[in-house]
Amino acid sequence: MRKLFIGLLFPVIFSAIAITAAAQTCSGSLGDPVIYQTFGSGPNPGSALPTNVTTLTYTTNNCPNDGYYTIVNAANLAPSSCHPTWQTVTSDHTGDPNGYMMLVNASYDPSIFFTQTANGLCPNTTYEFSAYILNLMTLAASNADNTVIQPNITFSIKANDGTLLATYNTGVIPPTAWPQWNKYGVYFTTPAGVTDVIVTMNNNAPGGNGNDLILDDIAFRACGPVVQTGFGNLTSTGAQEICQGSNADYTLTSSVGAGYTNPFLQWQINTNNAGWTNIPGETNATLHIAITNAVTGSYQYRLAVGEGQNINSPSCNVSSLPLTINVNPLPVVPLPATQTVCEGDTLTLTATGGASYVWKGPGIAGINQNPLVIYHVSPANAGSYSVIATSAQGCTAAPVQTTVNIIPRVVPGLTADQTHLCLGESAHLQASGGIYYKWNPSAGLDHDDIPNPIASPSQTTTYRVTISNGGCADSTKTVTINVSSNPQADAGKSKVIFQGQSTRLQGTVSGDNIASFYWSPSDYLDDPHSLTPVATPPHDITYTLNVISSSCGEAASSVFVRVYQKITIPNAFTPNGDGVNDYWNIDALVTYPESLTTIYTRDGQQIYRSTGYAKPWDGTSNGNPVPTGTYYYIIDLKNGTSLLSGWVVIAR
Cα–Cα distance between 138 and 141 in angstroms, integer? Predict the structure, then answer.
């Protein structure tokens, strides 16, 4: 086989379309196909046809040579995958890109390339035989080479005994600028007693340069009177659209044209493309349809017409074009999730499942908007919202509700019952405006996560509280609690003096906001309002330093001043028993009960020792009078003062 390479291809790829050529096709109504050869669908290549169908040789090559055929879908029909002179076919006759077609490369000699037997026909009944044919050769290739051969096919219909019932010649099937499916056919009437026929397709043109074609959708169908139907009248044939759950009432009318001597009628229904079935008892020219609580689906109605009892044989009947009632589902609208939005933010409510929506809610009577958007929401926008969805077919679903929660904006507040404390005192803090609270620092607080903690800081502290309403913008407030230290007084260490001496008290005070201080009693002090006054008490005395704070009360501290009596030590006495100056009387020594008095001879021998001086020395040692003479003493008052020493003379 010789194929021409055409340098210029038609620049645009078109989908295959179907047109009706001037052919002997039925001018009345057609019945369901008695035989319908679509070749199926699937991946390439398709299976071979039975051997009695074609005289051509099957090949799996998508570019069959002369005298060969293959079964393919559109995927193998691009010029780049076969011949540049071929059309780019993108689907079969029905528009299915995976639909199989019979690709024929004609044999060199004219021949019958397709044979189809139809059995079970009705006698005395007119039938249409038809097929869709596409010339594979492009118009550009044919114009470039006038020797390109175009398909030319003759249909022949014969009874089994060879009687020719009809014949039809397509003539030359011309090339086209883009792929075009042409319907070719012939109608014939079966004689009495004839129920089987044989149809053949003969390729009248030789093979070689061209004569490549595609065959699809071969059908035998009964041909009869024109049967018309409509909703109420014959011109109302458009699909009726109703909604799920609704009620409707229709009356289908019909008209049957001339052609049958004794036409019988039968209304049929096809539910959701499950196949046509007779409606029992509906054999009149009209059909009343009452629909209650409609169920979703597609419902088709048609009128089948047969010649007399042929009505009972589907292969002998014709039928009207279907009338369709579509029961459209109600929109299925998912329940919108509950929304929680912060005051001042944007609320967006989105519904799905419909084509249009009407929202209602607080302050919204009904707005055709989706999504529903509300800017700068306030607590007034909280509450229940509902949406009514309508489908593209006008079906409206029941309202669907959702809830919107608005979290109020934090309006922070913070107070303290007092902001100035003395150390050890407490203040009650009170925050407001939110749901959750967090204090920082937590030192000195009994709780750091409540709105009203008790603050007992040990020093001046600034507390910051973060106030939250649960997911929205937080706010903060601060309060400073000033802590004043309590007054402290220290009167200093105890003092020891001898009668007639003076000592300086060493007082100190501390604390905040000291207003005043003073010593009490003020007796024998040169300045009781001085921290270091000079004290000259004649006897033991306790002084108290008092300090007063203007905010945190008073404090006191005491100091003891020990005043020792003045000791006068005589340097002679006469222990002779005359009752005069018989004892060494040391004034005031008795006031030193812990004192230690020791007497020594000139050579250092101890002759007297006394703790305390409750009984004065009488000039004896171990009960014996000591000789007249000079003796030496040492007195230790045991009060931290210097030792007293000297001499004493005994004269008798």
Answer: 5
Contact (Cβ atoms closer than 8 angstroms) between residue 95 and residue 102: no
Residue 326: CB partners within 8 Å, gap ≥ 6? 239, 240, 241, 242, 297, 298, 299, 393
Between residues 12 and 427, the one the model is more confident about = 427
**Residue burial 418-457, b: 16+ Cβ < 10 Å; e: rest:** eebbbeebbbebebbbbeebbbeeeebbeebeebebebbb
Distance CA 371, CA 366 (A): 13
pLDDT score, position 184: 93
Contacts of 213 (CB under 8 A, 6+ apart): 104, 106, 133, 134, 135, 136, 151, 173
Place of tokens 């493309």: 273
So what's the pLDDT on residue 569?
Answer: 94
What would the mean pLDDT of 496-523 be, rounded to a whole number? Answer: 94
C-beta neighbour count of 268 within 10 angstroms: 21
Q: 């039968």: which residue's tokens?
A: 266
* 132 within 8 A of 89, measured Cβ to Cβ: no
User: Is 274 in a helix, a strand, or coil?
Assistant: coil
The predicted model scores a pTM of 0.60
Paired residues of 40 in beta bridges: none
Q: Which residues lie closer than 8 Å to 360 by C-beta, 6 or more apart?
A: 366, 367, 385, 386, 387, 388, 399
Burial of 563 (0-12, 13-18, 19+ CB in 10 A): buried
CA end-to-end distance (rounded Å), the chain:
183
Instruction: Report whether 218 contacts 185 (CB < 8 A).
Output: no
Which structural domains are found in the chain, ordered by start? Answer: 17-224 (2.60.120.260), 227-305 (2.60.40), 339-407 (2.60.40.10), 413-480 (2.60.40), 488-564 (2.60.40.10), 572-650 (2.60.40)
Q: Cα-Cα-Cα-Cα dihedral of 63, 67, 68, 73, to 10°?
A: 60
Per the listing, tokens 């390729």 go with 203
84: buried, middle or exposed (CB in 10 Å: 19+, 13-18, 0-12)? middle
Q: Does the pLDDT at position 10 exceed 70?
A: no
